[in-house]
From TrEMBL, chains A, B:
Alphabetized UniProt keyword annotations: DNA-binding, Transcription, Transcription regulation
Gene Ontology biological-process entries: negative regulation of DNA-templated transcription
MF terms (GO), sorted A to Z: DNA binding; DNA-binding transcription factor activity
Domain HTH gntR-type: 2-70
Lineage of the organism: Bacteria, Bacillati, Bacillota, Bacilli, Lactobacillales
Protein name according to UniProt: Trehalose operon repressor
DNA sequence: TAGTGGTCTAGACCACGTC
DNA sequence: ACGTGGTCTAGACCACTAC
């Protein structure tokens, strides 16, 4: 069940995406939106705030909310979105090849935020293939404390769908570190790297809603296929 | 003048940073905060929402807001923060070397979001030096339509301070694209690159509060010094 | 001056966690 | 049952923009 402000948000984004409100237009004023959707102003304002934060509109005091030029859907760096979801929203027609699932300990050396040692985990290694080219190697460590086992089908389809839908866990937030490094030989093979190119590595530490540490992830991207985008707002400290 | 919810937000962040509320603790409940700060619940909730979004706490329904482990201050990828501000908040002790200021047209080929051609701009090229090592080359194009001239002192100190404080403009949002590419020879020289290493390039298109396009930026980072962090929350589409 | 967004309030009802 | 956060309301006052 969606909240009222989410329903309003979605309706407005749809109207922007479908050109009912066009780039440069003002969307209806907050008071008009109150009448249109039958909501109070604070509720409408939550929806409009989300439009702002996601780069759909720019709100200007005394004037209104202007629709921005949105050409937004390339690979996002920030955010916490599963590969499966990206694939769906970007229509990438990508395939996933599962290299292996096994039991290991989390390699604490790789994850500087890993404070505890000898964390038992299920290790999943996958390659993302787009147009027959390997683009990304994903290495996931799901902590045994939280997820006891991972079926192959979940790794092939979507880990997050399994974790959230089947297990009923709520993935909530992550800390990420992005670097550029020389890959090990296994990754060189998997990504079919010929020269000595480095790869972009996004390492993250993912937590559940109740702050439980649940997953470490390493995504290794071929640099020639790496193109991330971001929409940022200025918040002065 | 700060808003009430901003004052409350700052006070709470200070208490977390200084350990008055420690990692794993619950901060006072929203009702208690209402009494503590003499505000209504929606006002307190705005402050707490900001704490969540910036990774200070995790709010759990029926339970409270738990202080997270914060080791947050490395170079952020997302966000829109000037180098000068990063320098100050990270205590990087960096220096800026201004290579040149001149008049040019914006090289539209580099910025795929640059729709119009032949935009007149002031071009500023700078190198950021930390511990005597060149780390980043910043290339800024400030549109002549908005900023007629840039004094050398502004380039040496902080462009954003000049633009926001002296000119009274409000920098508001940006679209960014992050890639890894081979640099041109000038950048190789400036960054003292010996081999054939690529660089990380963050290109952005920056707008003012009133949606005016105002600046194009290209930041070229040495990959061995590149380490970005991010705090991300999951928002399911 | 009228309309816009920005902030804040006091109160209501609900869903969830704890005990 | 009680306290927690999550949502929504109706109304107020202010600051800014446009005319």
């Amino acid at each position: 069940m969606l909240n009222k402000h989410e329903i309003i948000y979605r309706d407005l984004t749809q109207k922007i995406v479908h050109g009912i409100y066009q780039k440069g237009d003002l969307i209806p004023s907050e008071n008009e939106l109150c009448e249109l959707y039958g909501g109070s102003r604070e509720t409408i304002r939550k929806a409009v705030k989300d439009l702002n934060e996601n780069g759909f509109v720019q709100t200007i005091r005394g004037k209104g909310s202007i629709v921005l030029d949105l050409e937004r859907f390339v690979f996002p760096v920030s955010g916490l979105t599963s590969y499966k979801e990206l694939d769906a929203s970007l229509h990438m027609h990508s395939a996933t090849r599962v290299i292996g699932i096994s039991d290991t300990l989390v390699p604490a050396a790789k994850f500087e935020f890993a404070t505890e040692l000898d964390l038992a985990a299920t290790y999943i290694e996958r390659v993302r293939v787009v147009h027959d080219e390997p683009i990304v190697v994903d290495r996931d460590y799901l902590l045994k404390d939280v997820v006891t086992a991972v079926p192959l089908a979940a790794a092939q389809n979507s880990l997050y769908e399994y974790v959230e839908h089947d297990l009923g866990l709520e993935v909530s937030y992550a800390r990420k570190i992005i670097t550029v490094e020389q890959p090990d030989t296994e990754v060189q093979d998997l990504l079919e790297l010929t020269g000595n190119e480095p790869v972009v590595i996004v390492r993250s530490e993912v937590h559940l809603n109740d702050t439980t540490l649940f997953q470490f992830t390493e995504s290794l991207h071929r640099i020639d296929k790496f193109k991330f985008t971001d929409f940022a707002r200025r918040h002065v400290q």
